[in-house]
Amino acid sequence: MSTAAERSQFRTEVIAGLSGMPPTLPCKYLYDARGSELFEAICQTRDYYVTRADLALHETHMGDIAKFVGKGAHIIEFGSGAGIKTRLLLAGLDHPRAYTPIEISTVALAESTRDLRATFPNLEIRPLQADYTQPIDDQALQLDPPATKRVIYFPGSTIGNFERQEALDFLIRMRNIAGEAGAILIGVDLIKPVEQLLRAYDDRQGLTAAFNLNLLEHIRRELDAEIDLDAFDHQSRFNSGFQRVEMHLVANRPTVIQIDDRKFEFQPGQSIHTENSHKYSIDSFQELADQANLKPKQVWTDPDDLFSMHWLEAA
Predict the structure, then answer these.
(1) Using the 8-state DSSP alphabet, how is residue 79 labeled?
(2) Does some domain include residue 76?
(3) Domain that holds residue 84
(4) pLDDT, tens only, 41-100
(5) Residue 1 above 60 pLDDT?
(6) Are residues 224 and 274 in the same domain?
(7) Are residues 79 and 94 in the same domain?
(8) Is the bond leading into 296 cis (omega within 30 degrees of zero)?
(9) Within its chain, how far is the Cα of 137 from the centroid?
(10) Taking burial as the number of CB atoms within 10 A of a residue's CB, which of 90, 202, 260, 272 is the most buried?
């Protein structure tokens, strides 16, 4: 159950998004409890290649990644990080100084911290409840004695959810947290055939459709909104101009979403844009990193060249 303040923020952002032209909804609200369950199921489908490719990359290159991280590093992960990739990284490193997961959800952070402390009892784990897309107080990341370096760990393809300027600003914040002696280890999904991309975001089992439509159920439940869920269909689109997959909720008949005294009318074919997933070539992402004054030092890909992991240092 969310707090009154969280519900108020949710209401404000949903109304602002639906008031836009075209209407949008923040993708972070896809991940309520049910949405998170559905996303975990999506990651197991044959159509959604991203998680398998990311895991294969970790398994293939863990030894080399550990050499770049070095001994005594402070690993700072954006996300609650109790998954297989985090465990592979922490198990493969040479005596990391500490591990700090940063997560906005208090519940998710507590669960991941408990699980990782049981797995790594000798590792200092210092959870931080915060929104990692916003500035973070550096005092909360200080260690005594200090680590040899800070390494910001951001696996998966979440950087693709940001618009280009947002992604650039995000990389700059990461660089500032890492510091001059630190580094960033970040996952980036690669450009591939459009049919393969669209299938990954509209799987044959219908899980992505349920995941996207659950956003409307989230709004209806939390904000006591009036929404006809059957009036919308999930659709994935490829926007070649921005090299991104887009998720939309498309009205299949005239319908109205009402939140308090606000009404939002939709005609058949009108959509609510719910998520972007930008795809990069290795060169195009490194060009973006360069604009953030980050120097690409190494890049790894999975055996099928579907996904990449970049090691970036302050220029």
Answers:
(1) B
(2) yes
(3) 50-130+140-192+279-314
(4) 999 999 999 999 999 999 999 999 999 999 999 999 998 777 889 999 999 999 999 999
(5) no
(6) yes
(7) yes
(8) no
(9) 21
(10) 272
